[in-house]
Amino acid sequence: MSSFIEREIQNQFEEVISQTSVTETETPAIEWGEANPSKRPDGMDWDPESNILTYDTWEAQRRAIEKANQEHTDISVLAAGYGSGKTVSGARWLIKQALQYDSSRFLALGIDFQKARDTTFRVLFEQLPGDRTGIVTSSYNGPEESPIVVDYNRKDHRLTLVNDTVIKLGSADRWNRYAGDSYGGVWADEVGHYGDDLHDLLEMLGSRLRGVGGPQTQLFTLTGNGKNAAFDIIERGLDANGDKIGLNIETVKASTLENPYLSDSEKERFKRQYGNTSREGQALHGGFSAGEGNLLNRQQLSFIDKSDYEGGENLVFYIGVDLAYVESKAKAKANDSDYTAVVLVGYDRSNGKALVLDSKRERVMTIQQSITWLAKFAGQVPQPTVKIEDVAAQKWFIQEAKRKVEGTIQSVSPGNQSKQERITDMSVLFERGDVKLCNHSVNDNLGYDSRHRPFVREWVEFGSGSSPGLLAACYYALQDVNVGSGYESQGIGISSGDIYGRGRK
Fold it and tell me: What pLDDT was estimated at residue 17?
C-alpha cells in the first residue's frame, strides 16, 4: 500500500472520529437549597437534564459558606459539634468553587492520609453526583462514576473535574508537600487535630493562594479539641510565637442539637453522652471548652473501696492491651518509648457500671515474655475477654495469645478516631461516675491505691506529649461494653463470688 493511500485512509478515519465524538460535558451549575430532610434526606439533588446540582444547607452551614465567599475573608471557620455536618459543608463548598473556576486548582486537607481516606476524602466523594461515588477499592474508582469527574488519580491524590479543575487531596502531617503549587482555595477538615503543624501549614498556605482562579480563601471545619494551635489561631488570632496573625478570620459555631438531619433519638444520645460534662461545650456546641492546659484533670476520676462495692457477683471481666515494642529496654527508656500496657475492667451487668480493677505497664519484652506477662495478668479473674488492637504488626501477638492466654481473645479496631479523640470521649464515662477506679488498699500519701498511680499520672498528663498506653488499654477494655446501661431487668446475672469472681459456681 502506497504512502498516499495510507494518508488518505488515516484522514478519513480521523474525520469519522471527529464527527462521531461526544461533545465536551458542560460544566454543571450548583445551587444552594434550604434544608429539607423530609424531601431530600441526603441534602442533595442532581438533575442531569438541567445540569443543576443542588446542595441543601441549614442555617449554620449557610453562614459559614457565605463568610467563605466574602471578599475580605481570609479564613472562614465552621466550629461545630459531633454529627453537625461540618465535613459535608466543607466538601460541598469545595466542589462548588472547583466547578465555578475552570482550569484551576484547589486543595482538600485531612489530618493524615489514613484518617482522611476514611473520613474527609470519603465524604468529599459522597457529595459528587452519581451512584457509589464514595466507594474506593483496589478495583473500583467510585469518584469516576460521577458525571462531573473525568479522572481520579489515586497515586497522585488528584481529582479532575469536567471543567479541567483539579482538587488535590492532601494531609496536614505532610504540609510541606504543597508548598510548590498554587491554589484557588483550600478546605482543611478537622484542624483541631493538626497539632502544631497547623501553624506551619497556615504560614505556607498564605503564599500559595494565588496564580489560579478561585476565591483565594480557606475554609476550616472542626470540632474543638482543647486549647491547642487551632484555639490559638481561631479564638486568639495568634501564631506559634504568640504574635498577631493579621488575617481576617470569620467564625461560625454550630450546635449538634440544631442539625435538622439528625433524628430526635440521635440528638438525645449525644446529650446523654456529653451533656453536663466538661466536653459538652466543644462536643455539642462547637466551642473550645475542654482543657485548660492538659485535656483531662484529676477531678474527673473517682474511687471506690473494694469493701464498699456490693455488686461483685455481677461482674464480668475485660482486659485491654496496648502493645509497643522497641529493640532494647535501655533505648526505650532513653527515648521515653511507649509502654506495653494492660488494664483490667470489671463490668457490672446489673447496673451498667464499670470498675478499673488493676493496670500494669512494661517496656520492651520478647514475644514470649509479653505473652507470659499477659497470661499472668489475665489469670487474676475467671474467663476474661482480652481485647487487643488488630493491626498488621500485631496479628502475630493475637494468634499467640489465643494459644497461651486463658479467656476469650478478641481483636478490636480503633476505628477512624485518633487516640486523643478516643481517650477524651472515654473520659466522659469517668467524669459521670459510670467508671471508677477500685481501691484494694489506700496509700495515705496518695489518697488512693498505689497500683493506680501510673494510670492517674497518664490521665493528668494526657495531651502534654506523654505516652497514654494505660488509657488506650482502658479504652479497648471498655470498647463495645454497654457502660451506663444495666441488664438486670433482662434477668442476666452471675452466681455469687468475690469481686474477682472467685468462688462462683
Answer: 43
Q: How many CB atoms lie within 10 A of CB 341?
A: 26
* Strands of the sheet with 315-322, listed across from one edge: 303-305, 435-439, 353-362, 340-348, 315-322, 385-389, 408-412
Residue 504 in any domain: the answer is no
pLDDT at res. 499: 40
| Closest to 419 (Cα-Cα) out of 393, 391, 453 | 391
Instruction: Find the DSSP H helices in 21-112.
Output: 59-68, 86-100
Which has the closest alpha carbon to 410: 384, 382, 387, 433? 387
Buried b (16+ CB within 10 A) or exposed e, 27-50: bbebeeeebeeeeeeebbebeeee
| Residues of the chain where predicted confidence (pLDDT) is lower than 50 | 4, 13, 16-23, 291-293, 326-337, 486-505
Q: How far is CA 21 from CA 11, 24, 151, 460, in A?
A: 15, 9, 19, 67
Model pLDDT, residue 330? 46
* Contact call for residues 429 and 478 (beta carbons, < 8 A): yes
CA Rg, the chain, in Å? 27
Q: What secondary structure letter does DSSP report for 244?
A: B
Task: Indicate whether 74 and 204 sit together in one domain.
Answer: yes
Residue 16 lies in a domain: no
Select from 201, 437, 415, 423 the least CA-distant residue to 294.
423
Cell of 291: 482543657
State pTM to two decimals: 0.66
For residues 385 and 318, is the Cβ–Cβ distance under 8 A? yes
CATH number at residue 141: 3.40.50.300
User: What is the domain range of residue 80?
Assistant: 59-274
Query: Whole-angstrom Cα distance, residue 413 to residue 450?
Result: 31
Asked if the structure places residue 377 within a domain, the reply is yes
Can you state the angle between helices 367-378 and 395-404, rounded to 10 degrees? Answer: 50
What pLDDT does 25 receive?
A: 60
Q: Is residue 319, in this structure, part of any structural domain at all?
A: yes
The residue type found at 241 is: N
Task: Render pLDDT for 194-230 as a digit per residue (tens, 0 to 9).
Answer: 988 899 999 999 889 999 999 999 999 999 887 789 9
The pLDDT, as a whole number, for residue 391 is 73
On whether both 170 and 138 belong to a single domain, the answer is: yes
Q: Beta-carbon neighbour count of residue 367 at 10 Å?
A: 11
The 8-class DSSP code of residue 370 comes to H
Check: CB of residue 504 under 8 Å from CB of residue 496: yes
* Terminal alpha carbon distance of the chain: 96
* Set of cell numbers at residue 478: 471498655
459, 464, 470, 475: CA torsion to nearest 10: 80
Distance in angstroms (rounded) separating the CA atoms of residues 158 and 385: 44
